[in-house]
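Recall the central idea of this unit: under ordinary conditions, the amino acid sequence of a chain determines the structure it adopts. In this exercise we apply that idea directly, starting from the sequence alone.
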Amino acid sequence: MAGLDNKSSAILSTCDFGIQAVINRAAETLSLKVICGHREKAAQDAAFYSIPRRSKKKYPDSPHNQVPSLAVDVTPDDVRWDILNDPTINPKEYYKQINQAYFNAGIILATGKEMGTELIFGGDWNVDYNTKDNNFDDLFHFQLRNTET
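Accordingly, the structure predicted from this sequence is:
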């Protein structure tokens, strides 16, 4: 079922209006869950020091730390975190989840481009449309393209 639930809408409201518009439009087609918009210092520190690392930026250098947030983390609504954190659990299901993340990213990126709000995807930081050269995969992260990475 496409759309955003109330919790996702509340998190999304902490983001730049352009990001909000793109994610809301993409959610007309995709079933999405917004997991992070603005991130305070404690949450940024937790993301930076986590293992595996969920952020390469210390506070206040992440676009998530801006008000409004210049970044958003969005997952497929039914994502299975246990599988994404350990591909040995069930490789077939793992790859289905990864493929869904890339599929959603394509729709979100195309939606942003169509709306004039170009985004960077955490699966292609240098925006060369080649995901094989990516060093740090953050497959649910999107930020405004004019934001330093």
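Strands lie at 32-36, 71-76, 119-121, 141-144.
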